[in-house]
């Protein structure tokens, strides 16, 4: 295979369209006769529904139908659940799990603010919203549960009555002699670490359009989803139609981040309304709906402790983890077990004991969001590692240097299985090399000197370091079909769906190299169930590995067929034929070269003769990825804290990482930049806040603060390439990584900057009020200590 | 997120606008830049029966310096004042740089920000610091509302529902008067968690003979730091005295708490920001010859 495009920063093929505002998103699609939906959503966090009446809504101007449970009952099947415990995991970890599926329309008990109770279909969205206000719902409020730790205690109000309690997932995992290590360790530190609830927040909200064609009983639905085939399967189950009668299309999608990899009621309700009303129906989620009803994320508490020798060698980690799942345990084992599997990351720790509880509360259900348990668990680990460094009076970089695994240690098996049930074995990388590369790029020693020099002037600068190892590219498969057209150009169809990642470019690079054609000859089609029958979708940093490998292998098969046809046309042996730049020729004989178009045309039958070879220049491959590839990175944040106001300024941000072989470095850097921006949000700004009645207090962008260009620092990246042995391209996933470490790195940097005050950071986001509160808390602790010594 | 139904009126003159306001009273809302009203309409937090759009009203777009007084018509965009102020009124320019973003300032109006009266907004505090006055037309003709009498509470002013604010007037600091502006917000362009605007002038002997301090984001309205002004007036503004004055001003506050900041934070930050604003004003202040 010639690597003409692989590894090059090819400009993104999709950008001219997207940057000129010529993208075609769900909301851009308008169908003749289309009507619009609005939803009646619960204002209560927990309530019993005694009745839903259309009331005056049905006779409002422009109203087509008011639909509640009874109107849609035949289609109201449980919504899909994810995250069953795979057999390989069940064999080694005893998991207790409870899952009760929500329904698309809530019939009896609402369990979070924003749950759908009824739907109005009208000639315009404004008409639908006006009428939705008139729908009458009798609610009987029930006590909500908002605190995850209280929710797990006996006697808490129970959210799913038949469960008996609110603990949806419970297990213990670990290895080694933890109690012995803690007994004998010279140093032990422990703390309670909090990670707030924050979310993906794509620029494009969700949207669904459905068109029912009664002529052939087929349904076409456009959905801003990351998982068209999952949406199709949900519709097959609910509507009782064969899969080929349901076409799900994700056109241009403006960001997903996992938020759009979730199953949602509207995926079914809009198609059901289109069938019920016999008209195309559109719903574009507004930001208020998105805030209260699209999946939330993060939100954990860790009681973590670590045992070490005086020289910094880590001996054991113990952690009690609570994961707030929101009102429904939609994702089963995924978030709790991801948290556990990624806790230790780059550190060599010989013993581990974890008890983990996934708890339901009266809040919007959680789903995996860029990192999916990893940002939380890395935050807890790096906080306790920094605490250990302070306890040992050791530089936090040096402590990590002494404990990070190197290339010589790999492959390295952790004593617990991965979430997919396979053995958890780091495949490739050098985590200490990541650290050294980050320190070097940052000029760490100079930063430390400058920090010392500035403190007497009341300028407080700090450095924070965070490292992670991330299982990426979860399988089990993604497929790709590669086929040539009569012009000799190629179409690549895959179940992977782009939300802006650059699939049209990166996948074209892989295909063009494997086929031997110019990249402009390749068109990539994703997000359409009509293009390929089976698929998984894009999430979990999985598409480069899963779809990329399928494309590589399938394109190679097509190339073999082209070689065979060219050999017949050129009257040469196949092994002497080469294809490059879209031309086939005999090696060493440039004048023999012919365009692929001629090769293909020569293979088509004529009235005079059959084709030289069968013209099926196409191949479909479903690459099987049994377990993950391990991406790793070290992030370094440099900040300045205004000790008068608590305001934080980001000075620099450095990422040194390994995601295996790079298909397109600029796309990789873009992924890192976007992830870091979201991590800055998690570290400094973003939090979904509920009051104790389960009311959402951050329902608009006035209060839920996402970072803007002004808040994101310059980001420097260093690429280290340790190819994965687990796929033919040697690649690993990078979609999520950027978002994993920033909260930990920023918290470490703020704590480091304010070390003269003795500040301890245990929670994000670090707004100015929080930071001054930490200084006041540290001052109070110091004063207390002095009083204590005096007494 | 569509607004509840409302009637739309677009008067062409102040009398026509006043006639509509008189007819609809509390049921009407005036639309100028719409940067606060339109989101509130879309969230259905504001549900006026009638929206009176004054963008077509003549004679409200003036921006002029009359003596030392800056007169800003009701349709002057914040961005227009910002561009003008970059040369003529650095305090206004600095304050406006913190107000939202360019896109917001390009539509938002100066007078609209004053009569919207968000207690954490920059312009009301500048208005208070510059001894501002608002020209208001109503059924009884024109009246002038002094800055100190304008702000009644969060989003509440003494402009009546049948009245229209037509022009804001600010006494711009003369060249001997130093100014300072300091605020802290969660992000660039957000409403302030706390902020301070200060003016300071010194006489030939070096004592302060004109002092103004306005604090915002720390109460139901922007407030004058009267204790600080009293502390400094007629005295040598030493660094220690500025700090004392700022602390005295902050001590008088009872700031609100919300999810972004505690009350104690706002009081503590107000002291720091007031001191910084006063120090900046002192550094810029010249002395009488």
Give a nutshell description of this structure:
The complex is a heterodimer of chains A (791) and B (289). Chain A is α+β, with helices and mostly antiparallel strands and 791 residues long.
Helices and strands, with pairings:
The complex is a heterodimer of chains A (791) and B (289).
Chain A: H1 15-19, E1 35-41, E2 47-53, E3 63-67, H2 69-72, H3 87-90, E4 96-97, E5 109-110, E6 116-122, H4 125-132, E7 136-141, H5 148-151, E8 167-175, H6 178-184, E9 187-197, E10 207-213, E11 218-223, H7 228-239, E12 246-249, H8 265-277, E13 281-284, H9 287-293, E14 298-308, E15 314-326, H10 334-341, E16 352-360, H11 374-392, H12 396-403, E17 412-417, E18 423-426, H13 431-442, H14 444-454, E19 460-472, E20 477-484, E21 490-494, H15 503-515, E22 522-526, H16 543-570, E23 577-580, E24 583-586, E25 589-595, H17 596-603, E26 618-624, E27 629-641, E28 648-658, H18 665-685, E29 715-720, H19 742-753, H20 768-790
Parallel strand pairs in A: 1-13, 11-12, 15-16, 21-22, 28-29
Antiparallel strand pairs in A: 1-6, 2-5, 2-7, 3-6, 4-8, 8-16, 9-14, 10-11, 10-13, 14-15, 17-18, 19-27, 20-21, 20-26, 23-24, 24-25, 27-28
Helix pairs in contact in A: 7-8, 11-19, 12-13, 15-16, 16-17, 18-19
Chain B: E1 7-9, H1 14-24, E2 28-31, H2 37-42, E3 50-53, E4 63-66, E5 69-73, H3 78-88, H4 90-97, H5 102-107, H6 110-116, H7 122-129, E6 133-138, E7 141-146, H8 147-150, E8 151-153, E9 156-157, E10 164-171, E11 178-184, E12 194-202, E13 208-216, E14 223-224, H9 226-232, H10 239-251, H11 263-284
Parallel strand pairs in B: 1-3, 2-3
Antiparallel strand pairs in B: 4-5, 5-10, 6-7, 6-10, 8-9, 11-12, 12-13, 13-14
Helix pairs in contact in B: 3-4, 9-10, 10-11
């Amino acid at each position: 295979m010639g690597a003409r495009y692989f590894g090059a920063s090819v400009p993104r093929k999709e950008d001219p369209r997207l940057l000129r505002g010529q993208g075609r998103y769900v909301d851009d699609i308008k169908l003749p006769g289309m009507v619009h939906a609005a939803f009646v959503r619960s204002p209560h966090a927990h309530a019993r529904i005694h009745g839903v009446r259309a009331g005056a809504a049905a006779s409002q101007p422009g109203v087509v139908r008011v639909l509640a449970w009874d109107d849609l009952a035949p289609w109201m099947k449980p919504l899909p659940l994810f995250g069953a415990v795979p057999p390989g995991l069940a064999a080694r970890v005893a998991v207790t799990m409870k899952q009760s599926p929500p329904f698309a329309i809530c019939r009896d008990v609402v369990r979070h603010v924003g749950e759908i109770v009824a739907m109005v279909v009208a000639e315009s969205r404004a008409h639908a919203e006006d009428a939705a206000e008139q729908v009458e719902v009798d609610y009987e409020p029930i006590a909500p549960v908002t605190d995850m730790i209280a929710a797990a205690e006996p006697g808490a109000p129970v959210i799913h009555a038949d469960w008996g309690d609110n603990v949806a997932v419970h297990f213990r995992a670990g290895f080694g002699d933890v109690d012995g290590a803690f007994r004998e360790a010279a140093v032990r530190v422990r703390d309670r670490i909090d990670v707030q609830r924050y979310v993906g927040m794509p620029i494009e909200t969700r949207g669904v359009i459905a068109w029912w064609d009664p002529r052939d009983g087929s349904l076409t639905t456009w959905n801003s989803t990351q998982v068209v085939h999952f949406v199709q399967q949900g519709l097959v189950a609910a509507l009782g139609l064969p899969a080929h009668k349901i076409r799900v299309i994700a056109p241009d999608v403006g960001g997903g981040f996992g938020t759009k990899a979730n199953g949602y009621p509207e995926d079914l309700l809009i198609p059901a309304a289109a069938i019920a009303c016999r008209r195309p129906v559109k719903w574009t989620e507004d930001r208020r709906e998105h805030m209260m009803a699209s999946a939330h994320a993060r939100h954990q508490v860790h009681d973590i402790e670590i045992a070490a020798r005086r020289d910094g060698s880590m001996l054991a980690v113990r952690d009690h983890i609570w994961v707030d799942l929101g009102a429904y345990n939609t994702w089963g084992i995924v978030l709790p077990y991801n948290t556990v599997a990624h806790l230790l990351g780059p550190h060599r720790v010989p013993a581990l004991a974890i008890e983990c509880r996934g708890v339901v509360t009266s809040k919007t259900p959680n789903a995996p969001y860029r990192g999916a348990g990893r940002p939380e668990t890395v935050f807890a680990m790096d906080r306790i590692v920094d605490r250990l460094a302070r306890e040992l009076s050791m530089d936090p970089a040096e402590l990590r240097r002494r404990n990070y695994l190197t290339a010589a240690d790999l492959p390295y098996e952790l004593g617990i299985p991965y979430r997919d049930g396979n053995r958890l074995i780091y495949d490739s990388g050098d985590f200490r090399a990541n650290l050294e590369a980050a320190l070097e790029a940052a000029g760490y020693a100079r930063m430390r000197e400058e920090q010392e020099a500035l403190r007497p002037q009341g300028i407080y600068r700090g450095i924070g370091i965070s490292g992670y190892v991330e299982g990426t590219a979860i399988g089990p498969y993604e497929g790709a079909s590669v086929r040539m057209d009569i012009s000799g150009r190629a179409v690549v169809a895959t179940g992977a769906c782009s939300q802006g990642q650059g699939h049209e470019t990166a996948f074209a690079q892989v295909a063009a190299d494997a086929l031997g054609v110019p990249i402009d000859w390749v068109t990539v089609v994703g997000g359409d169930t009509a293009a390929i029958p089976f698929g998984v979708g894009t999430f979990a940093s999985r598409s480069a590995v899963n779809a990329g490998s399928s494309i590589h292998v399938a394109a190679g098969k097509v190339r073999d067929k082209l070689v065979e046809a060219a050999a017949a046309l050129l009257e040469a042996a196949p092994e002497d034929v080469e294809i490059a730049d879209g031309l086939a020729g005999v090696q060493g004989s440039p004048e023999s070269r012919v365009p692929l178009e001629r090769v293909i045309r020569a293979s088509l039958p004529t009235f005079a003769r059959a084709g030289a070879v069968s013209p099926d220049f196409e191949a479909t491959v479903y690459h099987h990825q049994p377990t993950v590839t391990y991406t790793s990175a070290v992030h370094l944040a440099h900040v300045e804290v205004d000790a008068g106001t608590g305001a934080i300024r980001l000075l620099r941000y450095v990422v040194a990482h390994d995601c295996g072989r790079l298909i397109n470095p600029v796309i990789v850097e873009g992924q890192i930049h976007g992830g870091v921006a979201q991590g800055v949000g998690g570290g400094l700004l973003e939090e979904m806040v509920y009051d104790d009645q389960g009311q959402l207090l951050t329902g608009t962008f006035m209060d839920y603060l996402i970072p803007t260009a002004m808040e994101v620092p310059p980001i420097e990246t260093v690429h280290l390439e340790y190819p994965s042995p687990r796929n033919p391209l040697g690649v690993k996933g990078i979609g999520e990584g950027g978002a994993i470490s920033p909260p930990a790195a920023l918290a470490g940097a703020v704590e480091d900057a304010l070390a003269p005050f003795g500040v301890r950071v245990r929670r994000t986001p670090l707004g100015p009020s929080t930071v001054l509160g930490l200084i006041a808390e540290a001052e109070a602790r110091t004063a207390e200590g002095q009083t204590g010594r005096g007494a | 997120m569509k607004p509840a139904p409302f009637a739309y009126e677009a008067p062409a003159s102040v009398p026509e606008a006043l006639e509509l306001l008189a007819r609809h009273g509390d049921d009407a809302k005036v639309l100028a830049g719409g940067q606060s009203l339109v989101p509130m309409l879309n969230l259905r937090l504001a549900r006026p029966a009638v929206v009176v759009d004054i963008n077509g009203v003549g004679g409200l777009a003036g921006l002029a310096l009359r003596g030392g007084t800056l007169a800003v018509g009701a349709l002057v965009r914040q961005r227009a004042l910002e561009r003008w102020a970059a040369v003529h009124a650095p305090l206004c320019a600095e304050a406006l740089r913190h107000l939202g973003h360019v896109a917001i300032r390009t539509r938002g109006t100066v007078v609209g920000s004053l009569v919207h009266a968000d207690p954490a907004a920059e312009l009301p505090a500048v208005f208070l610091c510059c001894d501002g006055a608002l020209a208001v037309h109503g059924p009884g003709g024109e009246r002038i509302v002094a800055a100190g009498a304008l702000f009644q509470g969060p989003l509440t002013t003494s402009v009546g529902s049948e009245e229209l604010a037509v022009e804001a007037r600010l006494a711009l600091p003369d060249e001997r008067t130093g100014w300072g502006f300091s605020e802290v917000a969660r992000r660039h362009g957000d409403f302030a968690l706390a902020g301070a605007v200060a003016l300071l002038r010194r006489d030939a002997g070096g004592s302060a003979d004109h002092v103004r301090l306005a604090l915002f984001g720390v109460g139901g309205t922007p407030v004058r730091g009267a204790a600080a002004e009293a502390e400094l007036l007629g005295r040598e503004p030493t660094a220690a005295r500025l700090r004392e004055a700022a602390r005295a001003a902050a001590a008088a506050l009872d700031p609100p708490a919300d999810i972004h900041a505690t009350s104690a934070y706002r009081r503590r930050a107000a002291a720091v920001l007031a001191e910084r604003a006063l120090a900046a004003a002192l550094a810029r202040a010249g002395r009488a010859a």
